[in-house]
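Continuing from the previous page...

OK, I double-checked the sequence for 2-furoate---CoA ligase against my notes and this is the correct one:
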Amino acid sequence: MFDLGRSFLAAVERRPDDIAITQGEFRRSYTQWFDDIQCAARGLEVLGLNKGDRLLVVMQNRWQMATLHWACQFAGIVVTPLNWRATAEELEYCINDAQIRALVYDESAAEAVRGCEAASRLPRVAVGDIDDQQAISFEQLCEEAPEQTILRASPDDISLMLYTSGTTSKPKGVPRRHRAERAAAVAHVAQNMYSQGERTLGVMPLYHTMGVRSLLSMALIDGCFVCVPKFDVEETLEAIEREQISNLYLVPTLYHMLIEHPAFSPERVRSVEKIGFAGAPMSAGLMARVEQAFRPKLFVNHYGSSEIYTFTIDQHAISKPGSSGRGGLNQRIRVVSMDATSPSQAVAPMEEGQIIADLGSDEAFEGYWNRPDADAKSLRDGWYFTGDTGYFDPDGDLFVTGRVDDMIITGGENVSPAEIENCLSLHPQVEEVAVVGLPDEQWGQVITAYIKAREPIEDASLDKYCLEAGLARFKRPRRYVFVEEIPKSPVGKVLRRMLRPQHTNTANTANAS
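Thanks. Re-ran it with the corrected sequence; updated structure tokens here:
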């Protein structure tokens, strides 16, 4: 199997003059970008990094970040990208945990870097106009080309280390080998039916597996990666029009923001033929609106994680809203009982349980970075226990219902937030909805729906809608809270933990009968 450096070199040799990357007026052919990448790889080695060392990159989706990602693949350096919104404390933790050897950052992370003592002791590269007297510029890093092509990695070397979002504990490092990253990129190409010369929007962050997948997959098909450093609806629409983007791979939140913006029109996105989403469920209501807005030839739902890229794929997402489809090209999945300790404890169709995935997958990681406690919890008998809940329907399609920790237990009954959210999302006055269980003396937890409304709605109207839509009486919300925004992570996941303590005393209680 090729390592990733050789994979990119193959694209250079196939189509040297094709455009590989753009950002506004900036454009590079595969040959030109390869030269940039090689200069960056040499610069990193001059900076003192050797094969296997970790490079921390804290930047928005600039062409320089994409260049550094590929430079590390050639040099055998482990690129370790971190959210550019990270605090100084989070930087400190990552630097110490990963034993980082050097840091590259841009203006978005400058304040955090200035406040981080561990960062002050590292060799640093500053991208853009940053007052850091001890740092070299990106231009200085790349000022000399190597005497011969740098190509030091093997398929078994570590390509990158992603950090999971630490919602209940410290973030966990997820090391991934070249072979796993390449297998995931090949599967991404196949599962999205990408063809030679596709053009994708590089707006999903390169510290997230979705951004990395978009970057790598384009090189495999001699495609073009169009950088948008930070999501902005008008800039994104302009990039789609200007570069004639052929496919989009975004979280549902970004689709929502695009189609709800006054600047959106179907004519502006008519070049987009293939749509994919991941990172969070897409409600039935949003899915219908996206289908109407884009009219794509392919509408793909991806379900996966940083640890094992793809669990399941549904290439006909619109035909069965809520379904995550079936196992991906490189995966086997099961649903086991909620308290299962073994992968053999599978449940029957339509019975909700915990979703697990086969660690024998070509795309799988092999364990967390220096976290035997996390390995013991999640890796059992060759299977990865995802912590997600779901069930198989009679057709064999998977429905993901949430997280084990998100399950609502009300009056002794287990209730999935996803089912209620899907129902309410179809109400014409509901723009967005998130459902959680709040502590309640009588019920244990009371089902509470947080709603961002298009216009004022009466609680009774929503309650009636749920019942008429066929939602079981015990599953309908007993409280409705109307909010300006649903809190989400930088990659669009609903932050239920921020809803639970919030607004508890302002909720309206619907008829509990």
